[in-house]
Amino acid sequence: MSVQRLAVLQWVGLLLGSLTWTLAHLTGIGITQWECNAVGERWPLSNPVWQAAVMVVAGSLVLAAEACAIAVFVQTRGTPFGDGPPEGEGRRASRIHFFSAAAVATNAILFMIIVLDGAANLANIACRQS
User: Fold this and answer.
1) In the chain, what are the domain boundaries?
2) Following CA atoms 95, 97, 103, 108 in sequence, which dihedral angle do they give, to the nearest 10 degrees?
3) Are 79 and 90 spatial neighbours (Cβ–Cβ below 8 Å)?
4) How far apart are the first and last CA of the chain?
5) d(CA 71, CA 92)
6) Which region, left, alpha or beta, applies to residue 78 given φ > 0 means left and ψ of -120 to 50 means alpha?
7) Alpha-carbon gap, residue 51 to 31, rounded angstroms
């Protein structure tokens, strides 16, 4: 696989998971606010159904990002790291390997956060007055 393609997959693996979690979390908050405010009275919305859908879509996207990161990590395994300033394709491949390793760990953590966030949204009773 070319270094250019690995670089693109590395950025997808690194950024897709965090952007997905951010949007899923904000969407979950928005769905709860929608249901609990005056708009929810006019346009009823099933909170558990939408929360489950957001959790499944976000989890799938994070797993896709994890697959990209793992593919890049495997393809760049054994790349010499060097000890000087960046030069040539070998140094670039070692940088790609480093970012893919970070993406593998980050996406695993983000997947667990999405599952726990979604489970909490499903278990929570929305619109409860305290």
Assistant:
1) 3-123
2) -160
3) yes
4) 57
5) 16
6) left
7) 8
Q: For every residue of the chain, which 3-state class applies, written as one string?
A: CCHHHHHHHHHHHHHHHHHHHHHHHHHHHHHHHHHHCHHHHHCCCCHHHHHHHHHHHHHHHHHHHHHHHHHHHHHCCCCCCCCCCCCHHHHHHHHHHHHHHHHHHHHHHHHHHHHHHHHHHHHCCCCCCC
Look at residue 32 in the predicted model and tell me its pLDDT.
85
Tokens 């489970």 identify what position? 119
Distance of alpha carbon 34 from alpha carbon 45, whole angstroms: 8
**Residues of the chain whose pLDDT is less than 70?**
40, 80-91, 129-130
> Using CA atoms, how far apart are residues 25 and 6, in angstroms rounded to an integer?
29
Q: Are 73 and 107 in contact (CB under 8 A)?
A: no
Nearest to 114 by CA among 53, 30, 67: 53
Q: How far apart are CA 50 and CA 55, in angstroms?
A: 9
pLDDT of residue 91: 55
Q: DSSP code of 3?
A: H
